[in-house]
Design a protein that fits this description.
Blueprint: E1 2-5, H1 11-24, H2 31-44, E2 48-53, E3 59-70, E4 75-85, H3 94-108, E5 113-115, H4 125-130
Parallel strand pairs: 4-5
Antiparallel strand pairs: 1-2, 2-3, 3-4
Length: 146
């Protein structure tokens, strides 16, 4: 497996995965919108996207990080917002590899850490905990949607 930071040359394979990710979360399939959204993230450099490839150079999964800051720690932090592995590659260590790459990147950038949110019933919680992530039990997370 090779994991690399996505750029405009990866857009087609990445858009297919991203569209599948959105469909997984019950959004309508829209490959063009997925492509446009990702192209904007890449061109504006307002997210970091890592893409995992197999030996045949087929994209297997991705993770997308959004930069933020910890005012208290006076350091940057990344929000691991998206993590997706194509169904045919699940169970092969792709998600673990992507999360490890994200961690290495955050350390390299001098971040305080990484944060993520996940569904209460998401089985990936076992992976997160195996990789050292800790479920927050000291604060509540609130959302205001429009």
């Amino acid at each position: 497996m090779k994991i690399t930071r996505a750029n405009s040359q990866h857009l087609e394979q990445l858009a297919e995965l991203f569209n599948s990710y959105r469909v997984f979360y019950k959004q309508p399939s829209d490959l063009n919108a997925a492509r446009t959204f990702l192209n904007n993230r890449i061109m504006k450099q307002d997210s970091v996207i890592f893409l995992a490839f197999n030996a045949q150079n087929r994209a297997m999964g991705f993770t997308q990080l959004y930069p933020s800051f910890s005012s208290v720690a006076l350091k940057p932090v990344y929000i691991l917002n998206d993590l997706f592995v194509d169904e045919s590659y699940r169970g092969e260590g792709v998600a673990s590899g992507l999360m490890t790459k994200a961690t290495e990147h955050a350390i390299e950038k001098g971040c305080r850490g990484l944060t993520l949110e996940t569904g209460i019933d998401n089985p990936a919680q076992k992976l997160y905990e195996r990789l050292g992530w800790v479920k927050d039990s000291e604060v509540y997370h609130y959302t205001l949607e429009f």
